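Why run this: before we spend reagent on co-expression, it is cheaper to look at a predicted model of the complex and decide which construct boundaries make sense. The entries below are exactly what would go into the expression plan.
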Amino acid sequence: MSCYLYAVVPGPGRPSVEGLRGVGGATVSTVLEGDLVGVVSEVPDHEFDERALRAQLEDLTRLEAMARAHHGVVDTLADHATVLPLRLATVYRDHQRVREVLRERREEFAAVLASVDGRMEWGVKVYAVPSAPATSTPATSTPASASTASTSCASSAGESSSSRPVSGRAYLEQRLRLRRERDSGRRRAEEMSRRVDAELRGLAEDARHHRPQDPRLSGARGENVLNAAYLVPRSRGDEFSARVREFGVGESAVRVELTGPWAPYSFAAVESVEEREPSR
Amino acid sequence: MTEPALASREIALVDLLDRLLAGGVVITGDLTLSIADVDLVRVSLNALITSVKADMATPWDR
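The model came back. Tokens follow.
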């Protein structure tokens, strides 16, 4: 058996993992080394060698099961303690190897644990929402995705309007109008994103931008123009989330979404400290 | 925090993967995801979602 490492937590006052289940339903346990604790469970070697792991990543059902199991452990820990989550699928041969890593990287772990202590992560996404089609517009000609759908959209619009002929010129004019609306909606969403980000950075201690989400993956309507994470003291979580919910009220072309609170995943990158944006 | 179990169920996979693949402490394990592996996940997801959507009658009418 190999040893899947979910997170590192401080040894003093460490949370109980009793009854907690991890990847593959395995019992979660702890490995103590000095003043740090690694939270682990056993995973079968044959599912966690290089080739098997690749196969797991390509299988959405198995990937999702692993991701949710990983998050389930981290999220439960975060309810009770400061937690440093690891990237998905960090696996060691045995407990001894986990101890070695905790010992070798003690300073880095301790520094990042201190920086996230008493704080949680909130996710904020801003979308440009395509306006509702005009009354004469066939519904199929309104793309759900501005950037990725144009080719298939054009063909599907052409096919679906065959029952109600539209002249080539009228069709092109309509496409042009839709594009202008989309561009102006996008500009509005980008302006809003800058405003949201600037204000939320003022409430947060740190911020990170993730890649905008592909609408095909998220299933969300509209184009994701901001996908940000903010590190916020637990005591200010209510204030932060209330402020986020106010953005976008009364806006038809822009949608603002809030997720969280999360364990500080986006602020736990010890290896890319130089990439971190200044915290004001 | 409130009802962690309920919250976990409602979390979108794509939000989760933003954090589990692009975030989290990256340390060298005896087995670790490489950048190539992380990109592989995105490619796999894209391919999968695209094929699912292609089966739908009006994929962009949402």
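The beta strands of chain A are 2-10, 28-33, 36-43, 84-85, 91-92, 119-128, 206-209, 223-233, 254-262. The radius of gyration of chain A is 23 Å. Bring this page to Monday's planning discussion.
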